[in-house]
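Input.
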Amino acid sequence: MQTTDTSNLFQSDAQHAKASYRAAKQLLHAESGDPITLASKPLRVVVRQKGNREADAWCAESGFVVRRVGLETGKTKQIFRGHFGPVTSIDFFSVPAPPPSSPLAARPAREIMVTGSWDKSIRVWDVQTKSHLSTTLAHTDFVKALVVIPSLEIVVTGSSDKDLRIWDLSHLSSSIDLSSLTPDTTPEPLIETVPQEGGEDEDDDGKARATTGSVALVSVDSLGALKTWELSRDAKGELQGVLRSEIRPHEIGIYDLVLGDGEIWTASADNSILMSTFDASSPSTAPVPTLRIPHPAGVKSLLPLALLMPSLNSPHLLTGSTDEALRIFDLSSLDSTPPSSSTTAPWIGLPATGVLPGLVREIEGHAHDVMELGVFTKQVDGKREAWIDVQRTVLVPVEDGEKEKESLLTEEEERELEELMRED
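Output.
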């Protein structure tokens, strides 16, 4: 048998069968969940909402762009172009207005976006004007994750080169360049932060007050390890960073990480979700695993509603998996007592079978891995209601003139991208 379709070369029968299954499933669920279709694969999605305004999804895409999409209208509001590879990560930072004595005193306060890409760079953008402010070659391999720490005015980036690197944002009110501080080394693809508890309370938005002086940074990697770091600035403003603890709570790669209220939630390719308790005031005390939720497939994303939207007063956890299913668990029905090593068998990562503990509902609606979960509110019959947004093949109609350049990757590169995303 011969074929002229080069995209089908070097694929096994199993790969052909899976592709056919997914194509059929995508047709079946074409209208499920108010879908919005993107021009290329979303690799990271950040849902942002200010007050009662329409929530926006900021999508880092494999098509080398960042796209801002209205989640109620489904319309593209902004497209940021400039990277030379798939965009993997996004975060935001509010730059205060320069002091009156500054030569740039006339410049107003502004919001910037920092993005990371497979092109090994991080770029800084002005959100309001969509202006590209700076480009920094940040790593020797793909940038896989980044997080802005406003209280320290830094951005931390993580890469396939196994480095965590720290970049200064403190001078953005008087300059547009990023400068390197001190790199630390650890294998990682995901990073998150939590302010350390101190003598002062936290701000309403969860950021540490300046008087606490330090932040706990959590990083996870493709080997299943979780590390906690303590970052701070000394009296001279110099950054200090110390590795405080390291555990290996999962058998293989960790795909998602959520922090808050003394808890660390991780989703892994070892077919499980794990909740660990964590004392942010003592980063040297390693997190303690207290609750593991087995799944029938690798877990790519998680959304603990009690942490991310406390106003809902909901005990539910949402998860997205490589079997393309969205699952809802009732945490109030599960025992979160720390397991005893003498009575609990070690987790070996086998897919769960039978009835899953705490499972309330399983939803079929995607034809690919469920990579991201987000929550927002919108007006329904005069009331504000919470909506869950699941991102993978979702988000926005292709604009006029964009279809011919909807992806800068060949079909072979798209498959390689899919494989690399699964391995991380």
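Residues 13-28 form the longest helix (16 residues).
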